[in-house]
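Dear colleagues,

For the upcoming journal club I promised to circulate an example of a predicted protein-ligand complex. I picked one with pyridoxal-5'-phosphate because it came up in last month's discussion. The inputs are reproduced below in full, followed by the predicted structure.
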Amino acid sequence: MGERKIPFGKPWITDAEREAVLAVLAGDVLTHGPQAKAFETEFAAFMGAGAHAVTMSSGMAALHMAYWQFGIGPGDEVIVTAQTHVATAHAVEVVGAKCVFVDCQPDGNIDPTLIEAAITPKTRAIGIVHFLGMPCDMPAVMAIAQRHGLKVIEDCALAIGTRLQGRHAGLFGDAAIFSFYPVKHITTGDGGMFVSRHKDFADTVAKARAFGVDRSFSERTVPGMYDVPTLGLNYRLSDLNSAIGRKQLERIATILDRRRANFAALKAGLAGAAHLTVLDSDGANGAINSHYCLTVVLDGPLAGHRNEVVRQLNAQGVGTSVYYPHPVPRLAYYQGKYPYDPAKFPQASRISDQSIALPVGPHLESADMNYIAESVVHITRALSS
Ligand SMILES: Cc1ncc(COP(=O)(O)O)c(C=O)c1O
């Protein structure tokens, strides 16, 4: 095997993005202008019928906005999947509500059979994540939510291109968020998108995202004149960021195709390896994976060797990550606040402690996938013999 340097993630920035930013800089409107509006329209069109999109300064900001604008707060409980980025849970905590964590299935997505048992009279919502871009069982989650009158917030940070039964992730629940952090499918530097099927709710969020003022700069008939009927924050995405996002979105089909091809090549290369499980729900029940990464879970004799496998892969130039390094209830903040019972989270713990995320981004090609597969097979074989 020749020497290679394979980063886990690398933003794919072209001259199109650079020129778009320069064009915004040459104009008069740097924020909250035509680029942000066009990005919202184009993103909603990409997602499909019924989507209303609102640009946000980050995925976290969009999550905060969702819980805040649903009026969820002190005294309320939200059922949250244990295996996710801390943002999914932090958004619940910052509005003063309580996270009630439930374990995931072996594939990392929330286990719907555990949701119902966690519901109490205080439960107001369910916060799910489409884990690594693999769609959750949304029909099951929505059936429970409807039975109990709960809101559903979909964290789609890694789920651009994720579909279930022909519908894009984020269009099942009441609100959804996307992230444009640099290693995501598309980037704006930092940035995010709030999406809802409910137009009125999206309009309310759009106002709350800009101080709660009743009319934006371009809607004012008398310059400088506006009123403020509600509370609000400044969670806007600038036109500079939005212009980058629009150019990235133009390439989304290519980005998703490359990820799919890389994922398939790597999965095939790992097919013969013992004690490795590839997390992938693609194809099952009309599920389409967005292929954020390819996560392998090490079992049997490899179970305790995750960090050693990572060390050796990194030494051979293969960038890796772990999604996520702890079940959220095991993180220091949450353990300090709520009693932590590891026996409640066997699946989330298995993924946190025994998995490795391998890169499949559009910056890589099939020779990289062969190199990664050969490296993984070679290293794990030596450690398990
Ligand atoms: C699942 C998930 N949700 C939310 C976020 C937060 O998004 P942002 O970094 O745009 O605030 C991330 C990571 O960045 C994530 O992985």
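Two points we might discuss: The chain is about 40% helix and 15% strand. Residues 58-60, 84-85, 87-88, 129, 155, 157-158, 179, 181, 192 surround pyridoxal-5'-phosphate (CB under 6 Å).

See you all on Thursday,
B. R.
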